[in-house]
Recover the amino acids of this structure.
């Protein structure tokens, strides 16, 4: 009897979202993506089956499915799980029970499905190694590529890479995109503990679908919309400035670049804000927040709120009164963790 538990954090993006969609970044001279992990994590638990069948149990979605490997690979209820299982499991291996739980609200814009996919891949790969000692657990790069390919199949749209790397690495991540690869630099989130600002998370109460927003941008760029491409290039410049400032631990300039990038993003996509997020934004800034930004591709979900340390409680109260839900999270914590019992 064994129990394997893999946990991966979600992330708040500070700059350069959408630029992580291949091959958009290849069109730009300057570009980067910056994100920071938050503890609204996804957890995947794998145990041996007690009846010879495979079992999927999604606690947060209140969904289950059971069957043999062939049927589970195309599970109509939990299609993502079936495809991920099929990427690692073979007929010769025993059946397992896979239980998942996610702390991030659905459609929060924090990359919840992607960090769940990362945790799922790692947990199932570790379980396969338990049964087959000759099997090598995949590298970070293989896990990212597998999770990305499977999610693209599920949503029928391109997916970026920042969510997967945020889930794997945790901390603060700077993604850069030279031809032929993605370079990921990870900085410990502990450096945020002694700063004069805090990053808060506030749920607007309305979910969104980032894949739809990103797909519209993707199509317009490759349909030849030069005006849109110029706006994306401007976002790339600000994101690159933000990344450089973070690497230098110059947080004043990093925050300024993140705010400028957000203003450009507002002009890029009219639906990036909603009535709910606008109301929360006004309340937060009136209470002293430096600025707020909607996570992911916008249209609702969770907002990242950058605020002075001495105004945190006042800002939380103001956002709550405006209809927001403050989410008590650890920012910049650890990445993917695996325990085997």
């Amino acid at each position: 009897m064994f129990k394997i538990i893999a946990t991966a954090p979600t992330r708040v993006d500070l700059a350069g979202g959408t630029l992580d969609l291949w091959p958009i970044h290849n069109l730009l001279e300057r570009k980067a993506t910056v994100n920071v992990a938050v503890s609204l994590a996804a957890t995947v638990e794998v145990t041996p089956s007690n009846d010879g069948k495979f079992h999927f149990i999604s606690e947060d979605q209140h969904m289950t499915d059971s069957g043999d490997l062939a049927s589970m690979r195309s599970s109509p209820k939990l299609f993502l799980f079936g495809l991920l299982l099929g990427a690692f499991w073979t007929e010769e291996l025993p059946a397992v029970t896979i239980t998942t739980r996610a702390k991030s609200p659905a459609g929060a814009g924090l990359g919840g499905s992607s960090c769940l996919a990362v945790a799922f891949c790692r947990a199932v790969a570790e379980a396969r190694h338990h049964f087959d000692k000759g099997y090598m657990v995949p590298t970070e790069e293989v896990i990212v590529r597998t999770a990305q390919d499977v999610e693209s199949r599920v949503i029928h749209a391109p997916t970026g890479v920042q969510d997967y790397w945020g889930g794997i690495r945790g901390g603060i991540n700077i993604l850069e995109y030279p031809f032929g690869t993605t370079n990921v630099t990870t900085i410990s989130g502990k450096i945020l503990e002694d700063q004069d600002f805090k990053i808060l998370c506030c749920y607007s109460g309305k979910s969104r679908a980032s894949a739809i927003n990103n797909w519209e941008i993707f199509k317009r760029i490759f349909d030849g919309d030069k005006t849109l491409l110029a706006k994306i290039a401007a976002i790339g410049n600000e994101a690159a400035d933000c990344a450089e400032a973070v690497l230098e631990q110059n947080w004043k300039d990093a925050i300024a670049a993140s705010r400028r990038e957000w203003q450009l993003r507002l002009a890029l996509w009219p639906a990036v804000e909603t009535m709910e997020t606008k109301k929360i934004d006004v309340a937060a800034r009136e209470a002293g927040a430096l600025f707020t930004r909607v996570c992911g591709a916008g249209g609702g979900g969770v907002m990242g709120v950058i605020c002075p340390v001495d105004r945190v409680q006042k800002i939380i109260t103001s956002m709550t009164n405006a209809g927001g839900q403050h989410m008590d999270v650890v920012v910049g914590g650890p990445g993917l963790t695996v325990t085997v019992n």
